[in-house]
Design goal:
The chain is mainly β. About 10% of the residues lie in helices and about 45% in strands.
Length: about 130
Amino acid sequence: MTLAGGLAFLVVERNQLFGSRQFSKDQTEQVQAVMLIDGVEYRTAMKPASSVYDLMNTLKEQRKIDFKGYDYSGLGFFVEEINGVKNDPAGENWIYYVNGQPAPVGVSYYKFKNNDTIEWKYEKKNF
């Protein structure tokens, strides 16, 4: 603490103990994530290198969305239902896009970048 002209200044560097909590670089670095589901926008902050699956789980924990699916060994998580709307093998299915483009990999493997927009569309798609 420095005293200058009757004013007290307290300089706290990152990683220095403040109160009873330690702040580290990992706790402060986050990326902004945006997810659209049927036109409804959800925003949250996530750790860098989080997957779309991580984002969905975070939104589910925040009680903003609900989803179900199955984790296929070696292939990753496959979303089968979002907010009560299930995939229809004979019709429409949940397909996700990254910044307006079809996703290059499954939700377990895409690591979103700051300000990426992840959009889920319920549409007919030939696989």
